Each structure stands twice: as structure tokens, then as C-alpha cells.
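Batch 3, record 17
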Amino acid sequence: MNMLKVVTVNLNGNAYQVDETGFDALHGYLEVAKAALAQNPDCAEIMTDLEQAIADKCDTFLGANKNVVSAVEMAQIVKEMGPVEGATEDAPNPDAPDAASTVQTPTAPTRRLFRLPERGMLGGVCAGFAAYFNVDVVWVRLLFVLLTFLTGVWIFVWLVMLFVMPRAQTPEDLALAHGTPFNAQEVINRAKKKYEEFSGAAADLGRKQWRRHEPTVKNAAADIKQGIDSLGTKMNNVRARTRARTPRDMDAPVGYGAQVAAGISLPVLSALSAALLVVFLALLALVADTDSVFGWTLLPFMPQWLAVALVVVAYLIVAAPVGIARRASHRYANGGRHFGWASSLDGLLWIALVAVFAWGVYQFVPGVSEALANLFGLSGQSAWAML
Amino acid sequence: MKPREKFTPIRKGLLEFVLLKVVSGEKLYVAEMLKRLAATDFATQEGTLYPLLSRMRRENLVDYEWQESESGPPRKYYKLTPTGQSTLAELQSYWQQLNNTITQLGT
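Prediction for the assembled complex:
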């Protein structure tokens, strides 16, 4: 079985751990409730009551040896709670349908190109395109691979996409990636669908078999991420236990010590990440241009595109943990939020470092400048034409 | 016995009456009300009950007081206000009247 991530939520002042799918359902339920009660003068009080009722129901599922509410249990809880009825007056008042329709009417469905690493083999670029154009990801992958066979530049296109496309992080992002309207009901539907897919997959031996053959890159990255996430969850728990009431905030704030530690580790990690990127790009240029790196020629039977692919895979393996550690440090340095002044500052630092390193490599590492000149002098034109 | 879908509006309309009746005796908190109603045709859920009780409180039909519980946080115990009691009496006689009317119409 797959391990699921656990989310810590604050229900009326107490911390509960819910697995990710269950959290989606809970979050969706509370969002719909809040929207339905928007016109209600006692909205805040009713929401508190509902949260407490959910917390009481969670308690019945938890015990000494069980401290996480599962998706199935959360689905049952939400079902038991029943839909929240919003109408303030008993008689059907003219405002009510209006209010309901503004809640239900989706905002104009817009699409955005996001990377979907959870769905992808490597970075989720193809999965992002598949979601954007609403086609099966297999076709997009096939197209990319075919184009790479025909003209090597497509591996660069993919790489550029990897860095340019933002990563989908919230359910809203995910909805935008598909171009579906986002509202709370959607989240519930998607959570349900995800759950069904998940249980279906568990039964399906064929898919299991496929899972086993998934690239180890992804597994390793996922394991590290899981580790860091669960560490974060544990820290949040400790905090939640020491304080009776935590602020109602999904981005749980972090301690001052963690913030300082992250502030110190962040520039180091950024330097490492920038250096890795520059080294990677230099290697890529060398391999793509000359079939050799510092005089070390490739094996005769190894085609060039495979060498390029190997460099890419090697970079992803090495860079993934650094990237994850950086993101985690961002969160701690920002004081618990995903975005904040620390990440902006660090972003600038990272760009500056990349520029400096790139200049250094270009100037002092033999072969790099020639390789770049060759690549962009000869095939550069066609590369841009293809883009 | 499965209550017919068609009659849902009737049950819904009567829920306020039923709630007044339920809290007319001893003070109750929401989980107890739900448990009491669960066995009847008027079985309902938190999602319905909390908004309804909040409106009834605004209309001064019921009120609640906080009471400590042995396990968990303090609970809201609901009881009828004097207005609630007179409204309940009114409703009960109205219900009786409706009942009589319907019985007579058939004969």
C-alpha cells in the first residue's frame, strides 16, 4: 500500500491529524458550509459549532494506537454532518437563491500551465501539458520523445519548461491546470475521484506492476519529501500540544529557532542549487556539442541523446533533495508560510549566484564557450524556429 | 419503514416545531437531540441543526448555556425561552386544529 501524507488541522482549538485525501474532503465541506452561511449573522458561531462537532466525531475514530483520521472515516464524518443549510429565513427569501447562485456559479474557467510533479514521471511537464490540453499524458510523452529523437533540441525545450512552468501546489492550482472551475464542491468531487482511483489502483495488479517499475528517481525524491513533510507535521504537533489554542491558520507558524536555522541554511542551499544548475548546464552543453566531457569520450555505442538524457537524470537525482530542502527552508525562514520576504530575497540571491557561476564557468572552464557558440551558432536558429 | 421522498417538505417544515418540543423537557445538547431524533422520521444532521438552532436563538425561541462535560470541551445546552414555550403551545393547538380539519375532510 501507498503511504499517504498527513495534514494537521485545527478544529476549534484542537489539533487533529487527517490524511491528505480526508483533508481535501474536510476542507471542501467547511468551505461549502462557510459559503452557504455567508449571509448568516451567526456564521462564525455556527462554523465553530460545526468544527467542534467534526472534532467530536473524529475522537470516536481515534484511540491510543491510532492518531490519524483516514479518508474513509472523514468521508463518513462529512456524510454524517450533512449539507449545511444556509437560508437565514424560514420562508424562501428572494436573496437566498441569489446568494446560492453566486456561490455555485463558477468563476470563468481559465487555464494555466502548471507542472504536476505528482502525476509525472520526472518533473510533471508532460502531465501539465496533458492537463492543459485535456489529453492522456501518454500521448504528450510520446510526442516529446519522438520529437527528441528527430531533433535533439526538444530535450532543451523540456528543460526550459521544467524551470519556467510553475509547480501546482494548491487544489486551486490543480483546478486551473485542468481549466475546470474551482469551487469547494469541485474539491470534494476531485477528492472523491482521487480516492476511487486510489482504491481502484490498489486492486489492479497491472498498475501495481507498473508502479514497481517506476523510475527510482521519483521514489527517492518522494521518500525524502515524505520524511521532511512528516518532520514538519511532527513539529507542528509538538507546537499544537504545548499551546491550548493555535491561530486558525493552515500554514502553521514555526518556532523562532527553526526560523533562524533556516535563515542560515538557506543561502548555503541556494549556493549549492545554483552551482548544481550551472554545472549541469555546462555538462549538457559539452555533451550535446562534442559527445565528450573533458576529453572523456562516450562509449561508442551510446547515442548522443542517451548521454543527454543521462545527464538530465543525474542532475534531477542530485538536485531533487537540494530543491526539497530549499523549499522546506523557505517555509521555516518565512515563519511558516510558503511565500514571504525570505523566499523573495533568496530567489534574488539564487539568480545572482547562477549568473556569477555561469560567468565563471563560461570564462574559465575549457570547451564550454566553444560548445555554446557551436550549439547556438548552428542549431540555435532551428531551435528557436521550433519553439 | 422508509419515509417517502415526496413528504420531505412536510418533515422539513415541521422540524422547528419538533425541535421546540424536543428541548421543552430537559436541557439538551445537539448530539443528544440528534440521537433522540435519529429513531424517528425527523432524523436530521448537524449541518441542518446548527443553522436552525442559531436562527431560533435569534428569534428568541431557545437559548443555551455552557456546561462542562466530563470528556472534552464544554457543551451548549439548549432550553426553551418563555417566548419559545408560548410559541410551542400555539403550534401544538394549531397542529391539533389542522389534524381535526384533515380528519373531517375525509368524511
